[in-house]
Amino acid sequence: MLIIGIAGGSGSGKTTVVKSITGQLKEKVVVIPQDSYYKDLSHCSEEEKKVHNFDHPDSIDFDLLRAQIKELKEGKSVEQPVYSYITCTRSQTETLTINPAEVIIVEGILIFTDPRLRKLMDIKIFVDADDDDRLMRVMSRDIIERGKTVEWVIERYCKTVKPMYLQFIEPSKRYADLIIPQGGHNKVAIDIISATIEKSLANCHKK
After folding, report:
1. Which residue in 139, 105, 100, 114 sits closest to 17, CA to CA?
2. Is the CA virtual torsion 79, 54, 41, 15 positive or negative?
3. 153 and 102 Cβ atoms separated by less than 8 Å
4. pLDDT per residue over 54-107, tens digit each?
5. Confidence (pTM)
6. What is the CATH number of the domain that holds 132?
7. SS3 of 155, please?
8. Are 30 and 3 in contact (CB under 8 A)?
9. Pick from 93, 105, 108: which is nearest to 35 by CA?
């Protein structure tokens, strides 16, 4: 089994890279999104939720994320949390069953900020993209998928997304084994990564 971490700023194209890799490797891959492991904010008021910093490492339940990655490595299935960006809460009744696979992709903006999580990864990839391109993607996603206003997105970008990127996410790039420039549109890099994964899996099967 290979554990692959794919990090990068919000809107960098991580999801595109993940989809490209899974499209090539098919059933060999299962994806673990960091976003499923945001801490539950059901105890917070609506005003507190509005100003919550989702781009700080403290917002992630790394203990649960690491525990479930370890269980998958042991060949066990896990019950992944279901998190709602609309309500900022974790479902108390619903989970998603994740079964082990040859390749586990852990994807998220903050996954390289946790040293113990990094140690579980065999390959670490950072998806890099121009700041303006990332902002446009973040605006489109948050407005269309998460029901946010343009004003809310811009304010959040200025107050948390950009500062947290500079403080935590961009510095974590130094832990990457591979850096993909041009975001998710770099087909050459994605093809090389897929070939590297296939080769690594072949070597594992020989052992």
Report:
1. 105
2. negative
3. no
4. 889 999 999 999 999 999 999 999 999 999 877 888 888 899 999 999 999 999
5. 0.87
6. 3.40.50.300
7. helix
8. no
9. 108
Domain count, the chain: 1
Helix (H) or strand (E) holding 135, with range, is: helix 131-144
Q: What is the residue range of 117's domain?
A: 2-202
176 found inside a domain: yes
What's the chain's length in residues? 207
Give tens-digit pLDDT for 141-195: 777 666 677 787 788 788 888 899 999 999 999 999 999 887 667 888 888 888 8
Determine the distance from the C-alpha atom of residue 158 to the mean position of all C-alpha atoms in its chain, rounded to a whole number. Answer: 21
Residue recorded with tokens 């990094």 = 118
d(CA 106, CA 40): 20
Whether residue 166 lies inside any domain: the answer is yes
CA distance 42 to 52: 12
Has residue 207 been placed in a domain? no
Specify if 117 maps to a domain: yes
